[in-house]
Write a structure and sequence with these properties.
The chain is an alpha/beta fold. It has 9 helices and 12 strands. It has 2 domains: 122 residues, 3-Layer(aba) Sandwich (Rossmann fold), CATH 3.40.50; 109 residues, Arc Repressor Mutant, subunit A (Orthogonal Bundle), CATH 1.10.10.10. It is 43% helix and 20% strand. A 5-stranded parallel sheet has the order 2-1-3-4-5, sandwiched between helices. Helix 2 runs parallel beside helix 3 and helix 6 crosses helix 8. The longest helix has 20 residues. The chain is globular and about 55 Å long. The protein starts with 5 loop residues before the first strand and ends with a helix.
Length: 244
Amino acid sequence: MVNKCKILVVDDEAAIRQILSTRLSMGGYDVVAAANGQEALKMFAEEHPDLVVLDVMMPKIDGLTVCRELRKTSDIPIIMLTALGEIADRIIGLEMGADDYISKPFSPKELEARIKAILRRTEQAAMGSDTAAGVVQLGNLQIDANKRQVYVDGARIRLTGIEFDLLQMLVSRSGESIPRADILNEIWGYTPSRHSDLRVVDVHVSRLRSKLEDDPSNPEYIHTDRGRGYFFPKLSSLQESMSA
């Protein structure tokens, strides 16, 4: 028997917890729910979920703080729930380590699609693939696709699953400028319905740069193709420049 994926739903609104618990359970997931951030941290430690759906505005401990605490020890996928107009909260949530966000009021069907896409990538990464093989060494940066690990100056750098997938995509298509909408579609599994959706890609690129680059403001690895997207320099050219 295949184990069900377990989802932790965290929201202080009982109606939302009930709706999501019912819908996700009907979708084949094992669902546990928490009404505030304090409960969420306790249940996370006890239940070991595979994904967290996390509201931003909550009593006792807010969602942003919960996200930051989880990221200290876990790479688990986190989807933030934010009020429609609170763009700043969306960006802050992503900067603290959330994988994605969805705005309130939201369609449960859309959330289910986001969850399915993230868990599918997580499962594929756990199983490995023929294309994700080998070790790339670029100066002080080492990318081990087999183990899905990254090292800078010999020290392992903690990346979330989404961050590694993004880095691997850019490296696998090195020398090619990839539009942000294409990145969002391939890594997150949906197409942007509004321009602000593309900020998910921008913030994750910024997070990757902060972890990998000596000078994130003048990146060596992940470059911006202004007005279009991002690219990783062609590997052969990058290796030649570093060995020169």
